[in-house]
Amino acid sequence: MTDDGRLLTIDGRPALRFERRYRQPIDRVWRAVTAPEEMARWFPSNVEGDRAVGAALVFDDSAQRAADEEAGEPTRADGEIFRGHVVVHDPPNVFSFTWGGELLRIELHPDGDGTRLVFTHLLSHRSIAHRTGAGWHACLGELDRMLGVDVPVEDDWMSVFEEFVDRLGPELAHVDGDALVWERYSHVGPEEVRAALDRPEDWGGAPHADEAISWEVVPDEHGSIIRLRHEEIGDDAELAASWHALLVQLDMYLAAGQLLPVDGARFREAYASLLASRR
Record's superkingdom (predicted)? Predict the structure, then answer.
């Protein structure tokens, strides 16, 4: 059984859910998803702290980021280390904890001679589902291999990312009079977001920088809400799709410090329908 990232709504929040089945008994899988030395092999950081309800956790990802950078793969940009705390610790069935401003829940269920894993991530914002989903796809692939599942190592991370963009990508802009407005979320703070907006050449936005656009950056407890308003899209679905792609690029630039080009053509049909609907 494999469920590679479904987008759900839980308690009014967007969430991603992954499911796996392992042939090992539940106690073995429990160690893999809770023991610090085993989590370090598949989780995107070391998870430091006691495994007890209320215990503080520190997510030190310096070793993982160094390995990703050496391999030329996207990784989190420099910034504060994430912190959280244990919400549920119920061996060998549930381990749940906060991770920055988000909630992770790992559930294990006996399944014949093996174990069914249900991994749920409550997100800060719908717009990060594609990036987060692609990241967990890679991490859970490492867990699969650690537990003896024969899954291939994917060398082309960009293809994986594009698959999740197509399946879970951020919502289209909404129409506001003659304008289009996009809303996105980033885990980095407002100052860093504004600095990136002042350097559009870093994330591919320079050719469009002189258009009739305005940005709003709103502080959030664990990051920033970013809104883009474009006053002169008109009926130009290609331009709207280009901006949609640029915002995906901006998101990855803020998250990983890298420019990953995204083809706006994949969004053109959706924007043609959106723009036609307002006539």
Answer: Bacteria
What is the pTM for the complete model shown? Answer: 0.91
Where do the domains of the chain lie, and which CATH numbers do they carry? 2-166 (3.30.530.20), 170-277 (3.30.530.20)
Pair 206, 200: CB distance under 8 Å: yes
Does pLDDT of 157 surpass 90?
Answer: no
CB 118 within 8 A of CB 5: no
Give CB contacts under 8 A, 24+ apart, made by 86-89: 86/49, 86/50, 86/51, 86/52, 86/53, 86/54, 86/55, 86/57, 87/53, 88/53, 89/51, 89/52, 89/53
Q: CA-CA distance, 106 to 185, in Å (whole number)?
A: 24
Residues with Cβ within 8 Å of 177's Cβ and at least 6 positions away in sequence, in order, are none
C-beta separation of 170 from 255 below 8 A: no
Label the pairing between strands 13-22 and 2-10. Answer: antiparallel
Q: Give 220-253 pLDDT, tens digit per residue.
A: 989 999 999 999 999 999 999 999 999 999 999 9
Contact 110, 118 (CB under 8 A): no
* Residue-wise pLDDT tens digits, 165-179: 999 999 999 999 999
